[in-house]
Each structure stands twice: as C-alpha cells, then as structure tokens.
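Quick question about two entries, pasted in order.
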Amino acid sequence: MSLLGVGRCGECAASRREKRRLRREVERLERRNRELEQEVARLRMALEEARRSGKRQAAPFSKGKPKARPRRPGRRSGKQHGPSSWRALPSAEEIDEIVEVPLPERCPACGGEPLCSHVAHQFQADVPPVRPHTIQFNVHVGRCRGCGRRLQGRHPRQTSDALGAAAAQVGPRALALSAELNKGLGLSFEKCSRLLEVAFGLSISRGGLCQAIARVARCARPTYQALIEKLRASSVVVPDETGWRVGGWLEWLWVFVGEDVTVYAIQGGRGFCQAAAILGADFAGVMVRDGWAPYRGFERARHQTCLGHLLRRCRENLETALRGTARVPRALQRLLIAALDLRDRRDAASLHKHGLAVARGRLEAKMDRLLEWRPRDEENRKLLAHLGREREALFTFLRLPGIPATNWRAEQAIRPAVVTRKVCGGNRTWNGAVAQQVLASVLRTARQQKRDALELLADLLRSPEPVVAGALLTGRPP
C-alpha cells in the first residue's frame, strides 16, 4: 500500500471520529433542549396557577406569608403623609340635649375644695334607641247591598289586604331595608334578621324574611322589565359577566350598565343568545366590552374594546417574555398609552379637531404596521391575532366623545355581586335567582340616579296592583 493510501485512510478514520463526536454533541444538545422546553412549560404552568390562585374565592384577601418585621399599623405622622382630620363640631341647631358636668365636690387627691376656672364643651353624636313604629289599621269589612260581594277598605299605607293569621305584618320600609341588606350588600337572611332585631327591635324569622323579600321582588318585576326596555334604548351600554351558582350548578350573572340604568340577569350561559335576551339582537348603540367573542355578534352596534384588559395582558406577557419576545407587548403598550394620552388632551380642550384626526390617523397606522408583524413566540401570535379581530373596536373612544375606553362601569357594577358570591356562593333556587336579579337591578339603578331606594321599594309595596316605578325611567334627577 502506498503512503498516499495510508494517509487517506488516516484522514477517513479521523473524519469518522469527528462525525461521531459531532453526532454525540448534537444528541446531547437535543436532550438539553427538550429538558429546557419541559422546564419552561412547567414554569409557565406554575405562573398561570399563581395568577389564578389570586382570583379564587378561597382566601381572597391573602397576600402570602406575613412579614417577619411588619410595619406598625396606623397612619404615619407628619405633614408629608397627608392632612390630619377630625370630626366637625355640630351647629347650635344640631344639638338636641345639653348636659351639665360639674366639678367633683372635693379633690380626690387631697380633699380640697375645687375652684371652677372655665367651662369646656364636648359633643357626642349617638344613635337614639329605636323601637318599631306599629300601626293598627281598623279595616272595615262589609258587603255590597246590590250584589252581595264582600268588600273591605284599604289605606294607602297598607301593603296587603291579608287579615286573620296574616294580620301581623312587617312594614314596607323594613322590607325595603332587608332587600338592600341582602341583595345590595350581600348579608345573609340570618344576619339581616339579627340586625333588624338588634338595631330596631323588630323580630322576624329567616324563612319569613326570605318570603317577604320574594314578595318585594314580585312587586318590582314590572319595574325590572321597564328598565330592560330603557336599557335597549341607551346609546352606550357596558356589559360584563361572571360565574354564579343556582342550586349548586354553574350559571352566569350578567350586568349591563347604561347611562342611567343598570340591569342584572342570571342566565344559563355566557353566549350571544343570553346577551341578546336582554339587549336585543338588533342593539344599535355603542357597546364598550372586553374581548369576549360573543359580543362581536351585535353587528349593528359600534364596539369599543376595553383597553384596560389589553394593557393587563401586555403586563402579563412581559412577565414571562424573553429577550426578543418583549417587542410586541411593549410596542402595543406604548400605542395604547399614547391613545389614552390623546383622549386626555382632547377632553382638556388642548387639541383641535383637525389635530385630533391627524394624531388618531398616526396611531391607527402604527397599529396596522404592528399587526403586520409575524412573531415566532406563541403568546405574541395569540395577542396579535386577538388585536386583528378587535382592530375596528380599538379607537372608537377617540372618534366618539363621551365613550369610555374601558369597561370600568361594568366592573364596578359587578363587584358587589362578586362579594355576595364569596359570602353565599349564589342562590339555592331559581326563584331566589329571579329575586336577586330584579332587586339588584332596581337598587343599583336607584343608586346610579341618586334616588332613595328604600322609599321607592316601599311605594311599590304599598301599591294595590303591580306598577312601574316611573321615577327610575325619567333619568338622573338634578
């Protein structure tokens, strides 16, 4: 064999050894890559679990383990931490009683005679003792001389014609207060009954209170239907939905907030059919909503997607974004903040109509260029796909004055229901669910219009026939 052949054989052997080494290195890197991908997936699942745990009903106010050295509770002293405040002194017209507090006859230390130098004033505002105001109605009962039909009188302050075993009743304002405590503030029937007894000396059982509140809801149902009709005529509606249980089964609590009316509805789903059952499928106003797909089924409406949800999604993506994957959420975050700044300048009258149109056009052009990006990261692809579906609903608030950029009205309206859900979980029966949606709507609308909800419900209870509370349909009072 020639030296040339020997040299070539040596080179081939070295080349084979190098290939085997490179192959082993590739296999090692592939194994390492698979391990890292599994680790990333595990960490993402842990992060998602941590995010969800903060929204669960169990321990809703937990912030983790207590600090080893917590700060002293209470307000910090000093002017740099805000102004100090105290109760204002009452006027002379507000004082109901004056009590003289003389000096003791003798000094408790030495037994000497005291000498008065001046008189200081101290004021104490307290709740007076309350006892139920009981009314006896002498109801005249008789018959018609012509047809022999039984007749009985009715006073405008009565809430029922019942006599005999049902003659002892609870008054309308007490029932209206119970409805506010139970449906508006989330107190259980047991706590409502206890509060009425402790604060007002009015004794009523849990079962009796439950039946009485159901009767209040029946009296308010015509008003509830009228509120739905008024909501459908609203120019701007802000909807939202959350989970709700009826008889232990998962249902959905919807809320729809108009200019001066709020409607709650407990339904068996969270799709377009349930929303259209309240708003009507042909709703043609402006809908300010989150990115839930069924809302896009209202084709005649103009839409504004909630920028708060998009900004929150950007922050969540930035928490897990790697070096190159942060470009998309950062760019979207800058665009949305610029849109909100433009809205503030318009509302402050520091921007003319032409300047607003030019600035809005630049924002829309930047958004279109952002939608043309083709990122490799899966989360960024999902975000841009969602933006593509919501493109026409991103900047409606810059085109129409008075349109909010977020669905904060619905978020605030649904918050009391979420607190109630944390306490009781929902309703046991569908009758209770109907009472919940009716009374919550009437109470929230009365609060929205700054009206006396207790007097309004009391008037509905005093009416001989079911009527509509017309005050809620006239709009917000001055």
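Here is the second entry:
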Amino acid sequence: MNFSKTLIAAATVTVLTSVAQAEVKTDGLLEIYGRASFSVDKLDDGDKYSRMNLSSNASRLGLRGSKKIGEFTGIWQIEQEIQFNMSNGTGDTNNRLASRDTFAGLQGDFGTVRAGKFDTPFKVAREPFNLFGDQLGDMRNLTRVGDAKFDERLNNMLEYQTPVMSGFQAKLAYSFHSGTSATTTSGVEQNEDATSVSLGYKAGNLDATLAYETYGSNTATTGKRDATRAALSYKLMPELRLMGFYQTADSTATKTTTATPPVTTVTNESADVTGIGMEYMVAPKVALKAHYMNRKAKAANSDAKMYTLGAEYRYDKALRFYASYAGVDNGTQTSLTPWKEGRTAQPSGSKGKDSSGLSVGMRYDF
C-alpha cells in the first residue's frame, strides 16, 4: 500500500513538473500563469491601531488558452485568487477555483465576444491612472467606498469589444443578474442588472479612457447607482509620464432591516473624485511614483484626501521590488484607509482620524 501511494505521488509530481516546464501550450490551448505578491506593512489608523502586517496582494493562479477554429479563435480563462499567506479556512472564498476573471468567448475580425465573470469596462478604464494597483495607496480606496461600488468584477456578464481602429476601442458589457438566476420577490422583478461601457484611445504617448456604468435599483441590495469616469496618461518625455483622473458617482441606497418594526435608512454615498499622478524613471529599472486624490462627498463631513509616494525597482519583466508610503485625511464622518483594496491586510479605520501606512513588497509574475 505504501509503495503504491509512493508510486502514485512520484508519477503525479513528474507529470506536474513536466506540465510546468513545458507551459502546456499546444496550439495555444493551455497556458499556466500567475502572480505572487507580498508586502510587509506598518499600518496606523490614527487612533488605537498601529501594527505590522504581512499582506498577500491580489496574488493569483490561472489557466488560459486559445484555439483557431476556422475564421474564429476560441478563447477561455479560469483565474483564482491565491492568498499565499493564509490557509483555506472556513468561509474562505478566495482560495477557490474561478474567484477572479473567468470566461469563454470568440475573437475574429469583428472583435471579441465573451461571457462569464470578469472586470467591467468601467473598472478596466482606470488603468491609465493606476500607479499603485493592489498595493498600499490603491486608487480604489477612494473610488470604491461603502455600497457605492463601481470597480467591480460582475457575475453573468456578456461583453463585446470592437477591434482596435485608429487607436480607438469600445467595450460594452451587460450583467443580467448577480445571482445564479434572475429573481422576483412577491411577484415583483428584482432589478439586479448592470450596464458598463467604455471608449479607449491609445496611440503614441497618449493613453485615455472614458467610461459609464449604471446598476438596477436592487443590485446587491445597494440601490440604483451610476457613475462616469475618465482617466488619461501622457508620456511628456521618455522618462516622465503624467496622469489625470476624474470620477463622478451618484449612489443613494435605501435599506430596510428585518427588525420589528422594520427600520429604513437612506445613505447618500454620491461623490466626485479627482486625481493627478506622475511616474519618473530615474534609471532604466528604477521608477519614482506619486499620486494625489481628492474625494468630495455629498454627505456632510465625509470628504477624504489620499496621497501616495513610492519607488519601484524592476529587476526583470517578471520580478519587481517596491516601497511606498500612503495616507488618507478623513472628514469627521468617514474612516477611509489607504490599505483596504486589493490586499489581505485590511484593518478598519477610525472615524474622523487620519490613517497612514508604510509598505515594502515584492511582485513576481510567472
């Protein structure tokens, strides 16, 4: 019995090793890829929390492929988040298959059509400004607040992407419902759909996008909401890139508790967010980065400002090291932090207190 188990284990290791070494890429049918991203952080909420943390930052493992089928190319992808610093405990929904962008579709001269669960065009439209994605100071800490969520990966999506024409590309996506099927309550249809569109332009030194997103009145119980965003990046000189960002969001949620008697609350999370940023290559492999973002909320005393400074050493295309400092200045009625989005280390902030963090990390893409 022990010999059989040993033989099976040895055979499994041999097969997996061969698969990894060969990248299992026949006719583009299968490719294994991923990212391991860690950081050590000192996080301070400005009140009673000031601790060191180890964070896994949107680490992932995926399978993807493509295959020529006549005049078309079939594409597919299955991607999951891997929390390298944590076990798959009770209630953990991240270390499971297909927790991130997962889809199948067709490409051709007409463009691309795909269906599944993946980032909306609105979310992707932030990329020209996205200097600190999945790191301390991620821009989503100000654009994705409370129930006013617009940087989403939605279920049950159908998307069409046009071909790139003279630098322009349009994307149109529709999420039919958030659960496994459309639902009704007491015979009344629940409006859980979402529409997301974007138009991007990339040519020469300019990269710019404009996007709009709207949600049905009962989507994820957050109420009807919509937003418009614009992001751009311009390479002023070979070493210097400048960025700008603007988002306006309208989000008012009405929630009723199951208590007796029921209690209804209305939360206005509408806000405008503006930002400026820069990236300067002080050496071929060393970049200095910074951005400043200002969130003007409609609710009283709920404004916030975030500033982030960082340095990055790109040892290789697949490996980089970085250090960054970020802070959020909060109004008296808000408790935002610069560390909540894209990371496993997510301690809560304190209302009316300014939060800050220092991070040193590594990202390895394979």
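Reply: Confidence is low (pLDDT under 50) at residues 1-26. Residues 2-22 form the longest helix (21 residues). Hope that helps.
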